[in-house]
Amino acid sequence: MSNGAEDRYGLYGLMAEFDEEEPLLHAARKAYAEGYRDMDAYTPVPIEGLTDAIGFKRNYVAPVVFCGGLVGATGGFMLCWWITVVAFPHNVAGRPFNSWPAYIPITFEMMVLISCLTAVIGMLAMNGLPEPYHPVFNVPEFQRCSRDRFFLCIEATDPKFDVAGTRQFLEELHPLEVSEVEK
Q1: In the chain, what percentage of residues exceed pLDDT 70?
Q2: Would you give the distance in Å from CA 24 to the centre of its chain?
Q3: What pLDDT sits at residue 143?
Q4: Fewer Cβ neighbours under 10 Å: the N or C end of the chain?
């Protein structure tokens, strides 16, 4: 178990480097089965099944965007209603003041506008962005992540994390190298 010493010494976690995607996928599954939960994988290409292997949980961007769209559509409709019924009622060709078919374009456009703004703001907030600095960039080998290397990082915040035990576990997975990630 972690005793908090990793945080005092500025250790972000341990990172294992692999040269192919299959060993990384195997390592991620084995780490999850072993009880590690605070981990992340970095790859140059998408790998099918990797999100499940590291225990990635569902995000809440879609429900937030839906709520934003609902608020936008309601707001657009109510704005049109308030303008034509309350603020500036005009009798145009004998139509009723509350002529909802005329509100459809504004309602739709407000729904799209607020949904888009909610999607961008929600995605940035839920991903913790913008994040101009991340500790994994302290590992010199990590620069090859965007070309031909695959990395699995077990973070020091994991309840099961222990420097010696986690290092031994990662070395049993036969990576090219296991590196300490400094904060």
Answers
A1: 95
A2: 20
A3: 93
A4: N
131: tokens are 């994040």
Q: Which residue ranges form the domains of the chain, and what is each CATH number?
A: 5-58+142-182 (3.30.70), 61-126 (no CATH)
Question: C-alpha angle 54/59/63, rounded to 5°?
Answer: 160
- Identify the residue with better confidence: 57 or 1: 57
Count of Cβ atoms closer than 10 Å to residue 91 Cβ: 8
Taken in order 170, 175, 180, 183, the sign of the CA dihedral is: negative
pLDDT bucket at 58, cuts 50 / 70 / 90: confident
φ, ψ of residue 13 in degrees (nearest 5)? 165, -170
Residue 42: beta bridge partners?
Answer: 151
Q: What is the pTM of this model?
A: 0.75
As a whole number of angstroms, the distance between CA 183 and CA 68 comes to: 36
